[in-house]
Structure formats: C-alpha cells, structure tokens
Amino acid sequence: MIDLLGIPPQALFGQLLLGLINGAFYAILSLGLAIIFGLLNIINFAHGAQYMLGALVSWMLLNYLGINYWWALLLVPIIVGFTGVVLERVLISRLYHLDHLYGLLLTFGLALIIQGFARNYYGISGLPYTIPSQLAGGQNLGFMFLPNYRGWVVVASLAVCITTWFVIEKTKLGAYLRAATENPSLVGAFGINVPRMITLTYGFGVALAAFAGVLAAPIYSVNPNMGADLIIVVFAVVVIGGMGSILGSILTGFGLGLVEGLTRVFYPEGSAVVIFVIMALVLLVKPAGLFGRTA
Amino acid sequence: MKKTNLLLATLAATLFASTAFADVAVKLGVLNDRSGVYSDITGEGSVIAAQMAVEDFKPAEKGINVEIVSADHQNKPDIASNIARQWYDQDGVDVILDVPTSSTALAVSDITREKNKIFMNSGGGTSDLTGKACSPNTVHWTYDTWQLANGTGSAVVKDGGKKWFFVVADYAFGQALERDTSEVVKAAGGEVVGSVRHPFPGTDFSSFLLQAQSSGAEVIGFANAGGDTINSIKQAAEFGIVQGGQKLAGLLVFINDIKSLGLETAQGLYLSETFYWDLNDQTREWSARFEEKAGKKPNMVQAGVYASVLHYLKAVDELDSKDATQVMAKMKEMPTDDPLFGKGEIRKDGRKIHPAYLFRVKSPDQSKGEWDLYELVSTIPAEEAFRPLDQGGCSLVQ
Question: Which branch of life, at top level (chain B) (predicted)?
Fold first, then answer.
C-alpha cells in the first residue's frame, strides 16, 4: 500500500467524498445568494436564517401536522419561499435605488429577528429530526461507510443546481431575467412585468435556502443558529466564485467542499480557516472572483 | 398636590427605614447566558431556580429581604466583568450566581475576590476555579472538568472500553478535558490511540468521525460541548459507529442535549452528571414544580443554582448578617443539606462536594416519558467524585 503523505489512499477517498457532500450544501446555498445578488443586487444576509427556517419548518410539519420528509422537501421551499416573496414586496423592494449597504443592513437585521424568535420559542439546544426510513442505513464502499442519506444529499443538490443553472442560462425565461437585470426599463417596455419577475426571483433564492435547510435537518442539529454558523463560509464561497456568477457559485461550492475535506485530514485545526485563506488569495489575484466579470 | 407628595414621601421613607432596620436585605445576581449557546442550559431556568429557592426558604419570616436580578453575559469575559463590577459597585449585589463558560467564570471570580463579595458558580466547568485560580470568595457548586473526566473516563474503562480516540473542540476547555480524561483512562489501565482537534464551533464532523472509526478505538470520547456535541453524536449515529461496535462517551453532556438529539440517536451514550430529575422522590417533586414554571425539566446547573441559594440563605439566617467573610466561613463550616444534592460540604478550596452519577442514555423502548432519558449505571461517592483537596494546587489549602 502506497501512503500519500502518511494517509492511506482509502482514507483519502473517503474524505474527498465527504468534502463533496459538504460542498453540496455550500453550492446550493451560494447558488441562492448568487441569484439574488446577480438579479436584485441585494446582499441577502438573511440567507442563513432562511436556511434555518427551512429546517425548522420541516420539523414543525412533522411534529404538528405529521407531514413526512418527502412532502417537506416539496412544501417547505414553497412556504419559506412565499415568506421571501412577502418580504421582498413589503421591505426589500424599497431599497433597490439605494446603496448595497442598506440591503445588507436590512437583511442582517431580519436575520437577527428571525433567529431571535426561533430561539425564544424553541430554545437553543436544537430539535430532533430523524433520517427518513427509506434512506436510513448505508453502503460499505470498501474504503468507507457511506450513509445512504449523504449520497442522497449529493444527488438532490446536484440535480437542483444543474436545473437552476439550465433555466437561467439556457431558457427564454432565464434570458428575460438576465435582460431585466441589465436594463429593467427596456425589458419593461417589451411588456414584461419586471417587478413581479424580481419578486419571484427573490422568492426562488429563498426557496433554495429552505431546500438546503430540509436536506440538512436530519444530519445537523436543527437550532436557531445553524444558519448563522454556516452563512459566513457561504459568503466566502460566493466571493471566491465571483459575486452573482451562477456557474461560479456551484463549482466553487463543490470545489471548496473538497479542499476543506482535505484540510480536515492533513491539518484539522485549520479546516475552519482554509476557505478564508483561499478567499484572500483569490481576491489578491482576481478581485472579481474566479468566475466573475470585472465591471 | 404638594401635600400629597409630601405625605407619600414620608410614607415611603418610613417604609424604607423600617425594612432597613429590621431585616437583612440581600441582593442576588444571576449572571449567565440568556441568548447564546448555553441559554437553554442556564438562562432563564437558572433565574427560576433561584426564585424557587427563595420561595422555599421563606426568608421574610426569618427577617431576610431577598431581591434577585439577572443579566446576559453573552459568554464573554469582558461583558461579564463589566456587569459584575456594576453590580457590586453600584447596584448593591451581594452574591453572583451561575456564570457558565469557564473564561467568564474565572473573570468574575477575580472581581468578586477584589470586591470581597461572594461568587457561587454553577454553570462553569474549569476545575481551576478551585485549583490554581481558587479564591476565598468563590464556591464551585455543581460539576467541574476533573469530575467529568473522572466520572465518565474511569467508569467507561471499567466497563470494558480500553482503547480511546478523542474528538476535541480546539480551545482551552476541550484541550483541558482531553488532557484530564487521557490521564484518567491511562490510570485505569486504558490506552489512547489517537485524537483529532476540530475548529470551534463546527458543523460537520463526518471527517473526524471517519478518522475515529478507522482508528481501531473501542471508545470515542467527545471533548466538546453544546451544539458541537449534539452534531458529533447525531452524525456518529448516521455513520453507524455504534452499530459497528464502537462506544460513544460524551464528556460534557446535559439533559437538554439528549432531549435535542432524541433517544433514537443518543441511545447507549455514557455520560456523567451530578443531578438528574428522576433520582429520588425529592428531586422528582422539585423538578415537577420547576417544570410547571419553566416548561421543561431542570438540568444539573439549574439544580445547582437552587441549592447554592438555599445554602447561602441558611448561612445569612444563622449569622443575621450578610458580611461576605463571615458568610463564606459559615457556609464552609455548616454541612450542606438540600433536596437535590443531599448531604455534603464546601471544602476549604471552595469545592462543593456531593456524589456524581454515571448514566447511560435509554433506548426509545426503555423510555416511558418525554423526559425519561437516563438509566443510572453507577454512583460515584462524594469523597471520590471530585479532585482530592491536596492535588488542585489551591493556595488556600496549605
């Protein structure tokens, strides 16, 4: 057996696979952020809280209404996405003509309020949510034990990411969206309801966060701070990928998951920092991010 | 109008005067985490526990006036220090209670000593509070890192778990817990085959668990706390670690953490605590009353706040004075006796002595109710539960 820097290749494969799984969460969250920033020019700091809401609402559906995981996967993004639509109509839409900073402050404040409410009613320790029975157990891959659920997370998030990318980059609807961000008044002149399209885009971005929240509920602790802990890393992912770049956010999400996974093997203490180190390096070399366009 | 004001003022003055002369007025300050990671473990529950102690003691009948105040220290030593100074200097607080997070507890202990007041810690973990950093003004009531390491570590080794792997939160508390537990494991004839330090706080522990899984260890010890422990255990279940034959040992686990994990996930976990609501009739009775007010069962930290307030008030009542030096001497001289921790004592170094318990988390089949979570494995007698007096390096002991 040839060891690679003292680590047997089997262990390395295992860690790479785990990195990919974590990358799936980064990808789906940063995708939502990138869409919202790209089309609305809003830095959505409430994204972490909306991800938490996704997990929390799945728990509520299960415990209050007996609605299982599979239905939650469909219903929760719709419910939480709808709250996003309301939020955009009532508050965020008033900020489009102002500096980015106002949107950032508003959404950051909203995040604190949402988290505060959740903490007040459900406490900080978190709520139990078990893995659905169809996905319990795991496969022995020889080099590692892969829980079925983790495999499902990668498949589901890849499917969602690719579909989103396809819709935005390759369809007529996506073309309208991209055109509306370039020149909203011109697109409006063609008879397209631009404000409504923007509202729905925000709702969709929020729904993506909620979808990630449902995926996370069975494996991470469902607690009010789960999003706050993750969102900073996800912002770093978006910055590395290039603010507003759809493909960039997906690729960097998975890529950084891998890098983080490797760091956990060779230097676990540094695994929380490695993404920020990469961010600093990327910003030095390419200030617009790996996939971003310079304005 | 003027007349009424004058009348009211006189009335108020008489009232104040009469209370001041007839009674001892004490002010207790519950200083803990009311919004962050430890707010379930301490928080409002500790305030309720302190209020219950006051109600049960009936101080008014004994000529003692008790007022309780509370504040959020956000687990930050600087904020805790500021509040402690303001309470002691301006607000007339006599005793500070609870104070989770070791770093804030050490800071408050220093200030209390400087101001010659009283600090009764329940939520903090570091055994340095009664060791290197001990103070004549500090009582450490509920648990400490030495007791956790000793309780869980040696018991699990005795139960057959000889080879250990540690998953450690990479900061002072986690490292201290790893060090203390490693010593205990080795002393009991066990062996440490490896450890991994994860950033604090973390979310995904699968990489570390995979390393633990392939290490050949029989026991995986989690030297972390709160959300990190919950996530570690949740993901250990997902990766089939317990089914694979490895045991899990949580080195600092509260009943709230187990509630959050659910029995399906947490079953079989070993843990050590000094209080559990279902120990005997007295703990059950008190916990039922607590649950009525707080909406959940108490944990050991909240029980510790209750018991320490009770003991403090007893000492004040005996002395008819709240002079800090006298009260501290009285509290150490009187044996402790309360419904939650039973009979015990406060040692010279400020360490409160009582039994500790090793529990195993029940399986869903064994559990008969929402809070029926632990099965008692063994009781560690009071004289063995805490670090021996001469080994802590406390300057008050010589």
Answer: Bacteria
